[in-house]
Specification:
Elongation Factor Tu (Ef-tu), domain 3, 21 strands, TIM Barrel, alpha/beta, single chain
Length: 405
């Protein structure tokens, strides 16, 4: 069995740092053009160079998304984008378009080519054809079950890597190709600008009864017709490994560094633990519980095991049980650290600490001091630096969470 890569998302430099600190083998991110997520800050040319330097210094890889479906007027900008990616040391380009793939072979020939889930790879014939065109990896369409992925693995060259999403948001589309946003808002999901109308709450109007609406409902508050559950496969690591999946991809480039830290840490530990103990395998409870400490929709296993109810029809929002309270910037001594605030917390709070690469534990916030050396009762200001006294040591780089009451 091949130990799979943990591939984590980064929408900005803070998320990149979190991915590297919490156990990612590789990070996927976007430049300022050609990526399928326009909402995050993303990486300009200098940031991309720095990201590659940070990742390579840690022995990790950078995968750059170049997976929009480009139009004619965008093509002249592509050669410079691709050649610069090679120049700064990008390890792989994630592409969805055959024309982009050919351009990458010409302008970035030293960079590996990974074919995006946007390409909709659902069978071994397509996987083999893409390999013959130069792809070193294919990202599976999200719609195919695990037994078919295993068959693709068996009927493709062993050097062709197989990447699958294991966690994160799903959408009502075929492999991410959706036109609802374009139709309803003019924002093109296939250029990274999705307005997420699949998450909206819909009602039915009858044309002859002006001002009256008729809820299409399964619950008293109506239904969210297109609102997909989030994917969570952490309890199925053995099945994914045995199917021959090379890379475990965590969705979330539009999400926070906190999300990246928690999900990366959980899947890192789950994979390592499975390879340490083998079959029969039971996932330690804390690893699954970590994924309840991030904002998420109701979880499911997607299409991996055949039909499972995939929609959250009674609520369009997130489940939020914890808030990120702070990040530990430095450990001053055994009971004192400097923290950067993320959400308000108070002296006396019990905080849940997730150290880099570690197991979560609780500490009590015993005292807070602001930058002027004044004792304060709470941390109300975003990103404020404070000195915190705790009953247990808090390692630098730790994220601290506060459970909602």
């Amino acid at each position: 069995m091949i130990k799979p890569e943990i591939l984590s998302p980064a929408g900005d430099m803070e998320a990149l740092d979190a991915a590297l600190s919490f156990g990612a083998d590789a990070v996927f991110l976007a430049g300022k053009m050609f990526g399928m997520r326009s909402a995050p800050k993303n990486f300009d040319r200098d940031d991309l160079k720095l990201a590659c330097e940070k990742a390579h210094a840690a022995g990790k890889h950078i995968h750059l998304t170049c997976n929009i479906l480009p139009r004619n007027d965008e093509l002249p900008m592509l050669p410079d984008f691709l050649s610069y990616a090679q120049e700064v040391g990008v390890d792989a380009l994630i592409v969805a378009d055959i024309g982009v793939m050919e351009a990458a072979k010409r302008y970035a020939p030293k960079v590996a080519l990974h074919v995006s889930t946007q390409a909709g790879v659902t069978n071994y014939a397509t996987a083999n054809a893409l390999h013959s065109l130069g792809a070193s990896r294919v990202v599976m369409a999200r719609e195919i079950p695990l037994d078919q992925i295993a068959e693709i693995r068996a009927k493709t060259p062993k050097e062709l890597e197989i990447e699958c999403f294991v966690h994160g948001a799903m959408c009502v589309s075929f492999s991410g190709r959706c036109l609802i946003s374009s139709y309803l808002t003019g924002r093109d999901a296939n250029h990274g600008d999705c307005a997420q109308p699949c998450r909206w709450k819909y009602h039915l109007f009858e044309e002859n009864r002006e001002g009256q609406f008729f809820p299409v409902e399964e619950e008293k508050d109506g239904t969210y017709l297109y609102n997909s559950r989030d994917l969570c496969m952490i309890e199925h690591i053995p099945e994914l490994v045995k199917a021959g999946v090379t890379s475990f991809k965590i969705e979330g480039r539009a999400k926070s560094a906190y999300y990246t830290a928690v999900t990366t840490n959980a899947y890192r530990h789950a994979v390592d633990d499975y390879f340490a103990h083998g079959d029969p395998y039971t996932l330690p409870a804390w690893m699954r519980e970590e994924l309840e400490k991030i904002s998420h929709r109701a979880y499911s296993t997607g299409f991996y095991f055949g039909y499972e109810p995939g929609q959250t029809t009674d609520d369009g929002g997130y489940i939020r049980r914890y808030d990120a309270a702070a990040v530990c910037e430095s450990q001053l001594d055994e009971h004192t650290c400097t923290v950067s605030q993320r959400n308000k917390f108070w002296t006396g709070d019990t905080l849940d600490v997730l150290p880099p690469g570690g197991v979560p534990f609780n500490v009590v916030c015993q005292k807070l001091m602001n930058a002027d050396g004044e004792e304060v009762p709470s941390a109300p200001h975003p990103t404020e630096l404070l000195t915190m006294t705790t009953d247990l040591p808090v390692p630098a780089g730790s994220v601290l969470r506060r459970k909602r009451v």
